[in-house]
User: Fold these one by one.
Assistant:
Number 1:
Amino acid sequence: MFVATNRLRIKNGFGQELEQQFGRHSGVEQQPGFLGFELWRLDKEAEHDEYLVVTHWESQEAHNSWTRSAAFRQAHSGPRSEFLISGEFSSYEVCLSSRPGRAKARI
């Protein structure tokens, strides 16, 4: 399994707007190899709000296919949000996973 993250720092008070933007369908749900999406909000007081965009994929190649797709370009088109301060992309290969009722397993 492959996980892609994007840490977004935004101006205080714009969290609801960001959540609404990510609540709209982007086409990723139909992308081959897509396993899931989560938007995490950092639970602390700071000079800015912080979110982590987390997508789960069957493989890095499935993720890369998404980033080269027309649906990706459309989902990321339009003007840059005026409330975005910065974004930081990272990616991870899942090595070990555990679920309720199951032993830890190497992926």
Number 2:
Amino acid sequence: HPPIPVILHPREGGCFRERQTIPLWGDTVTRGPRAIEGDAFRWRIDGKDVGRGNDLWIEAPAAGTHRCELVVKERGGNASATVTFETVGRTSRKR
């Protein structure tokens, strides 16, 4: 059976500032005691690869709504999980 990926961060509906450094944290649920190696975790934001591993830090994308996908490839097959989050622009204050 393929692993079942779980996105721990960002959470569904989360909101961040654009260009803020944010973590991507994920894990899997598997049958049996086998561990999933970090290279099996692939992160995508809006369909573009942003890195590998179950713990990754990235710069948040430009303002808007974004789709974050965690794809886990393992000998039992591939599986993915997705969440949607938002980023907002930085506002400058005039004095």
